[in-house]
């Protein structure tokens, strides 16, 4: 079996909070991520699922080096990137990109699509292949947008189209890993399916590896290779998609599955059969 492309080991993230204690308030911390470890091999999609506040998005930001870890390590292709200095992060940013939840808030409303898509290359002082206009048009075609709209602004696009712009921006630097942080949760169901299909097509064509953050299990089953279930900052269950959906081992996973409509009859039959044996 191949070595993991992305590996997180014993990740911990604590945030400072103001403690209680009358006039003499003591500083305290909140542990949002508590000893989280996972591995993703090239071409896989690992879905981190859980309720709001479970720590999944914080974990994603640690993996993408958008947040510094309190302790633990993140490795890309065997290299520990946890302690990279700001000046050394450009190389890592070329390998790991993020698609955020709200496409409008993550896109500069004052910039055209061309400027948004080419911004990562400009920031990294890299040559833009073919020039900004041709490069942007090519990327827009790849994500299913009209290349003639490269001079438009984010507000002139629908939510699904704006998210495609975000995906194009992530692809601009040629990453190997894309972190999708609730990338479809703000979209209508029909648009979600279109964006999921796009992500799967890009994965197949480009060999991308995804860390996919979601709370919607119906979305997860469409794209995940493996699933890790988080609650209270910890991973409580991890396995291949069919095993987690068909024979969940942890009570919290069963609770999540019971809270949504049955999303595949054969999984439900398998889950009921397994529950009857326990």
Automatic annotation (TrEMBL):
PROSITE patterns: ABC_TRANSPORTER_1, ABC_TRANSPORTER_2. Keywords: ATP-binding, Nucleotide-binding, Transport. GO terms for molecular function: ATP binding; ATP hydrolysis activity. Pfam families: ABC_tran, oligo_HPY. PANTHER family: D,D-DIPEPTIDE TRANSPORT ATP-BINDING PROTEIN DDPF-RELATED, TRANSPORT ATP-BINDING PROTEIN. Belongs to the ABC transporter superfamily. This is ABC transporter domain-containing protein.
């Amino acid at each position: 079996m191949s070595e993991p492309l992305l590996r997180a080991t014993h990740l911990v993230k604590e945030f400072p909070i103001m403690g209680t204690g009358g006039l003499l308030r003591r500083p305290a911390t909140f542990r949002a991520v508590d000893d989280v470890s996972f591995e993703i091999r090239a071409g896989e999609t690992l879905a981190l699922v859980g309720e709001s506040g479970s720590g999944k998005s914080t974990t994603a930001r640690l993996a993408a080096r958008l947040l510094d870890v309190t302790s633990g390590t993140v490795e890309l292709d065997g290299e520990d990137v946890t302690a990279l200095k700001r000046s050394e992060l450009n190389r890592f940013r070329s390998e790991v990109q993020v698609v955020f939840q709200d496409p409008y808030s993550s896109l500069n409303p004052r910039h055209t699509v061309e400027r948004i898509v080419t911004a990562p290359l400009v920031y990294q002082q890299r040559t833009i292949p073919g020039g900004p206009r041709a490069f942007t048009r090519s990327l827009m075609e790849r994500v299913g947008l009209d290349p003639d709209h490269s001079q438009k602004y984010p507000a002139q696009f629908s939510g699904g189209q704006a998210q495609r712009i975000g995906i194009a921006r992530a692809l601009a630097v040629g990453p190997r890993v894309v972190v999708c942080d609730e990338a479809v949760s703000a979209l209508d169901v029909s648009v979600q399916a279109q964006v999921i299909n796009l992500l799967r097509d890009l994965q197949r064509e480009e060999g991308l590896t995804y860390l996919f953050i979601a709370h919607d299990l119906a979305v997860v089953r469409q794209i995940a290779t493996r699933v890790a279930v988080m609650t209270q900052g910890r991973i409580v269950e991890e396995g291949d998609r069919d095993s987690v959906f068909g024979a969940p081992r942890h009570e919290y996973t069963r609770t999540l599955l019971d809270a949504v409509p049955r999303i595949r009859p054969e999984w439900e039959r398998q889950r009921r059969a397994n529950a009857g044996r326990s």
